[in-house]
Specification:
3 helices; alpha+beta
């Protein structure tokens, strides 16, 4: 079950509980109960939990899964216009495109300040050229614009 319906239900129940606790709190102040100040804390904390659950349920975005993609760790992100992920040595060439597309679609960060509005996501592998010498090899690249549209560039 997705997270958002569960959190919406929990937020509604916590909201109802905070309403009931608010009524008890007011009754406690009118009647002069000894626990009236504890009821203030309990009520405010329950209301805070309800609002937090509702806010997270509304803002939750599940990750995009692309058919044929493999999880690749991001090894460099300058926070602006370049993200680099590394591919393992056993990654098949047919998975290069879907993997870099999935990485580009799952980028979070609407605050990226790029001059041209594009974020370049590169998938690379480090290959050995000789003893003690290696070089990075670009496998695939995707460009994501500010609207979230992705264009694939395969070398």
């Amino acid at each position: 079950m997705p997270v958002d319906p569960v959190l919406l239900a929990v937020g509604k129940w916590l909201g109802a509980a905070s309403g009931v606790l608010a009524v008890l709190m007011v009754a406690g102040f009118v009647a002069g109960w000894g626990i009236r100040f504890r009821l203030v804390g309990i009520t405010s904390f329950t209301a805070l939990l309800a609002l937090s659950c509702l806010a997270f349920a509304i803002s939750y975005n599940p990750r995009v899964v692309v058919e044929g993609a493999v999880n690749a760790p991001i090894v460099f992100d300058n926070g602006s216009n370049l993200v680099v992920a590394t591919a393992g040595p056993d990654l098949a060439p047919g998975a290069f495109g879907p993997t870099v597309e999935q990485l580009a679609l799952n980028l979070r960060g609407n605050g990226r300040n790029t001059p041209d509005g594009l974020v370049h996501v590169r998938l690379r592998r480090v290959e050995s050229v000789g003893p003690g010498v290696s070089r990075p090899v670009l496998l695939a690249e995707a460009t994501r614009n500010a609207r979230g549209e992705v264009a694939l560039l395969l070398p």
